[in-house]
Amino acid sequence: MVIALIVYADVLIFLNTIVDYLLLLAAARVLGKSVKTFRMVLASVLGGLSSLYIFLPRQNMIFELLYKLVVASVLSAVCFKNSGIKAFLKSMGVFFLISCAYGGVMFALWFVFKPYGMIINNSVVYFNISPVVLVVCSVLGYFAFCIVWRIFSTSAKLALRCNITLFANGKRVDLRAIADTGNSLEDTFGKRE
Predict the structure, then answer these.
(1) What are phi and psi of 132, to 5 degrees?
(2) Exposure string (b/e) for 94-126, b if CB count within 10 Å is 16 or more?
(3) Cα 125 from Cα 104, distance rounded (Å)
(4) Whole-structure pTM over 0.85, yes or no?
(5) Percent of the chain clearing pLDDT 70 (strictly above)
(6) How distant is the alpha carbon of residue 30 from its chain centre?
(7) Which of 85, 93, 95, 173 is surrounded by the most beta carbons within 10 Å?
(8) Would you say 125 and 118 are in contact if contact means Cβ atoms under 8 Å apart?
């Protein structure tokens, strides 16, 4: 028995705009960048519009990957003020990986639980549920990400990094390292040293 679900373009764009905003916010947090709200909203709207890709006939995996990379590139270029190709590739890569993680979680939910009203086509996810429920779940997911990020990011503060140079076989390599004296240990939850 095949059940047809109706996908509303306005709901699709709105929900993907909200999700893209949260994904860009998470990427900005990982990158340690302060992003202007206007740039983030504009990139999110472009991301929401890119979800119209769901209406195209099913594409092969290579085309989907290229499409997602192009979208991640455009959103990163609009959202993050990059100064050079290295910064651009880093911001695009972080955003792409966070988006892949989010997409992986959505695909796992769809694969394991087969929820009614969830559609995945061309790697775009659509939920035939209340927009409020999806937005609330996405916001809760973002806060869970922030908690996990806070726990793991405090173990390697930028202030404790230093430059080192290694010499081997007549070659020289300059690297960034984390200074670890053993005296910078702290209780992750209680914030006691």
Answers:
(1) -65, -40
(2) bbbebbeebbeebeeeeeeeeeeebeeebbbbb
(3) 11
(4) no
(5) 70
(6) 9
(7) 95
(8) yes
Q: Where are the alpha helices (DSSP H) in the chain?
A: 9-31, 37-50, 61-79, 85-113, 131-153
Cβ neighbors of 92 (< 8 A, separation 6 or more) are 72, 73, 76, 77
| pLDDT (mean) for 75-81 | 89
What's the full length of the chain, in residues? Answer: 193
pLDDT score of 157: 52
Structure tokens at 125: 């996810």
